[in-house]
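Sharing a chain and its predicted structure for anyone who wants a worked example. Both blocks are below, sequence first, tokens second.
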Amino acid sequence: MQNGEAMSPQEQDPKASVPTEEDHNQSQVGTVPSAPPLPPSSPPPPGPPEYPRPRLVFHTQLAHGSPTGRIHGFTNVKELYAKIAEVFNISPSEILFCTLNSHKVDMQKLLGGQIGLEDFIFAHIRGETKEVEVTKTEDALGLTITDNGAGYAFIKRIKEDSTIDQLKTVCVGDHIEAINDQSIVGCRHYEVAKMLKEQPRGTPFTLRLVGPKKAFDMIGTRTRAPKSSDGKMGNGKETLRLRSKGAATVQEVPNEFEDRATKKVDDLLESYMGIRDVELATTIVEAGRDKKNPDDFAEALDSVLGDFAFPDVFLFDVWGAIGDVKNGRM
């Protein structure tokens, strides 16, 4: 064959011969592109966050008398009540409220949003149930309401010479279980205060109250918590801050500004809404601590406590009180 002449198919290299049907089938099989690899499966959507339980141990007793128990691993008030109930083999719903370092019904010692790391917790449980008939002779009954953070509202203060003060069976520490046979278990303090305020003057209504169980011969079994224990930490200058939402945190005892501002805001809560709540007052102070004007403060407060629908005049007075404390005017 000379240069420039084309080869016939028969003269081509045998390796380049026309493929047979079998070769064609194999070729088809071999050239089918493989499917692209599947993307890695997405992880399941995250569930609700699990907040770490501070590894702290607290001592506790039932306020009417009991042996001393040890509790740990709680991050809010409901979990605290569940731990106490487990130690003493009672239902959490039996616990009305807790006091710190005193077995007495002392509202100055009431457990709120903070527990000192050396505090001894006394749980006050349900005692006698009683019903009283009340007739409003003036707009205010003379009650200040708070709640235990777990669905029970109770009386924190009774104003001297008020309508309620005339009813000697009504006591500080009584849980308000029902108004006119309508259960209010699960209602917040401000909701209960509003219901009482809306009762018409001159028309009798009924309160069903549950007092804390009273102590008898077991009072002598109470003892002060030891200064150190397994799992304890801190030097007494720190507190465990319990939050209704989020994790409990160990933090320093409130400074002078925080303490004074919180007390003032708590006074304003009582004046405007008929409630006292140190945890709520603390949250309000935290919301206003670094704000530059009342509009920013109102917006911050609405983002964390919008359910309360605070009146504008209350917000204005709270903003003024926080500013007065900051500037040393009170």
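Comments welcome. The longest strand covers residues 120-134.
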